[in-house]
Amino acid sequence: MNNNVEKVIVLGGGTSGWLSAAMLASSFIKTGRDIQVELIESENIPNIGVGEGTFPTILSTLHEIGLSEKEFLTECDASFKQGAEFRNWLYDPAQKQHAYYHPFDPPAKPNGLDISSYWLKRFKDEPQGRSFSHGVTVQSHLCDKNLAPKTTQTPEYNWLAKYAYHLDAGKLGQLLRKHATEKLGVKHTFADIEKAELDSDGFIDYLIAEDGQHHSADFFVDCSGFAALLIDKALKVPFLDKSKYLAVDTAVTMQVQYDSQNQAIPTHTISTAQEAGWIWDISLQTRRGCGYVYSSKHTDKARAEIVFKKYLGLAEDADVKLRHISFTSGYRQKSWAKNCVAVGFASGFVEPLEATAIAMVEAGIRSLAARFPCNRAAMAIREVQYNEIFTSRWNNIIDFIKLHYCLTKRTDSEFWIEQTNPDSIPETLLQKLEAWRHYAVSEGDFPNKYDIFGVASWQYIIYGLEYYPDYVECGMAPEDVVTKSLASIQSMASSAPNSLMSNRQTIKAYKM
Ligand SMILES: Cc1cc2nc3c(=O)[nH]c(=O)nc-3n(C[C@H](O)[C@H](O)[C@H](O)COP(=O)(O)OP(=O)(O)OC[C@H]3O[C@@H](n4cnc5c(N)ncnc54)[C@H](O)[C@@H]3O)c2cc1C
């Protein structure tokens, strides 16, 4: 039997399916591999499609598959995103208002100095009224002022400040579908798949559709969403439930129209803590996308709707179109099994905070393409490598997301009280927190180069939540050089409006 890989079926036409098909097809074209990609999706099972926040990796993904940034911005109602702001995560807002940023740019290095350690050394014992991220990067100031991360002269997919996008997930799916089928040779088939048939080695042989048709391939990518038709139903890979650590499990969402089409477009996701979870607020070109993600153990649907409507400035009885979505936080024990890789919901989902899901799809397909097996014999070793990387990635994400919750000082609801219970915190995170009680977060704490969140992201959250170490090791820079270096961030922030336009103006100019 010829076991060379000549055909791949991607099952599912949601964001993960179309992104996977486009990325794989483009990689096969670039590497000169004659492998056909077919995407099969049901016309009867809708996508979830709510993912509207992305990660900076999306720039290279879109560039690699050959989409122009102008076309993408125009077709997907997209805007520039430079990070996230967290409001009221540390204190009960009735007592004290608090907010901090997680910008995409790492701390600056003025005069070659590691500015974050000098900032900590100077201010950790009297940080009142200061914000770590505003002290070490200009980007938080750009977010305050709704300034774009680039000028209209900056080439496509390049930046002055690192960015990702806020986008309309439905429109992204349509654009990817058009691009993948018209430019990248992806075959598109509608079929309702009932099940997968395995061969005597336990590999997927073919898919059986409701009309009895068989769809065969040598390799399968399971993008069938929460149904996880291949990785779960056929290959029986267990799902590891992590809701013990991450309590939110339900979202109520709504699209909100702007009062005027000239309204400012914030250039970051606004994430505001609530009594039993948090609300995301994402601004696109023509509308906002908002959602309250809550723990169903700590509140109910009716109360969640009231809290959400209050945030949106709506009356409790306002008759608006709300959508409810449930999920369980966790991931597959293995995302690669035999001749199948699962991505998107089929592989796992943690929660919407920090927009990790689309980034994990990109990371998954990039890792798959980099070690795409030429035949069946090459699959077993690739499977082991891939799964090691992904187990580490999932655990890094879970620890990182939990960090946002577990340092809270809020005691105004059961939800927040439970967040600091050590039983609700992964052991790996407890160990990190213990270490960071004594010394500053450093590069050496993150040995796995494949993890999504590196040192800068952890610094922004941990110091944003005012968790400072006893001791900070710095270089020996003279005091006046440190003062000048810290001041240079503030002076660049003050002059930024001279060179950068607003998010809205820049997008408009970019599209012309
Ligand atoms: C509340 C919430 C907020 C989120 N926010 C973000 C965010 O800001 N950023 C981010 O990156 N991600 C976010 N996500 C995650 C994001 O929505 C998903 O990663 C993304 O939608 C990908 O979904 P998917 O393609 O894996 O699955 P789906 O969208 O569920 O697509 C599944 C596909 O499989 C097909 N299918 C299923 N069964 C069959 C069958 N039997 N036969 C044929 N086809 C079948 C369906 O027709 C569909 O095309 C969020 C998720 C939730 C729940």
What does this structure look like?
With 512 residues, the protein is an alpha+beta fold. Among the domains are: 188 residues, FAD/NAD(P)-binding domain, CATH 3.50.50.60; 77 residues. It is built from 16 helices and 21 strands. Strands 5-4-14-15-16-13-17 form a seven-stranded mixed β-sheet. Strands 7-2-1-11-20-19 form a six-stranded mixed β-sheet. The chain has a three-stranded antiparallel β-sheet with strand order 8-9-10. Strand 15 and strand 16 form a beta hairpin. Helix 1 packs parallel to helix 7. The longest helix is centred in the last third of the chain and has 28 residues. The structure holds flavin-adenine dinucleotide. The site of flavin-adenine dinucleotide has 38 residues, from helix 1, strand 2, strand 16 and helix 10.
How would you briefly describe this protein structure?
The protein has 16 helices and 21 strands. By secondary structure, it is α+β, with helices and mostly antiparallel strands. The mean pLDDT is 96.
Uncertain regions spanning at least 5 consecutive residues: none
Query: What Rg is obtained from the alpha carbons, in whole angstroms?
Result: 23 Å
Strand content: 15-25%
Number of strand elements: 21
Strand order of the largest sheet: 5-4-14-15-16-13-17
CATH architect. name of the domain at 7-52 and 168-243 and 330-395? 3-Layer(bba) Sandwich
Helix/strand/pairing class, anyone?
alpha+beta
CATH class wording of the domain at 7-52 and 168-243 and 330-395 = Alpha Beta
Q: How many alpha or pi helices?
A: 16
CATH homologous superfamily identity of the domain at 7-52 and 168-243 and 330-395: FAD/NAD(P)-binding domain
The end-to-end distance, rounded to whole angstroms, is: 55 Å
CATH-defined fold name of the domain at 7-52 and 168-243 and 330-395? FAD/NAD(P)-binding domain
Heteromolecules bound: flavin-adenine dinucleotide
- Fraction of residues in helices? 25-40%
Describe the sheet with the most strands.
Answer: 7 strands, mixed
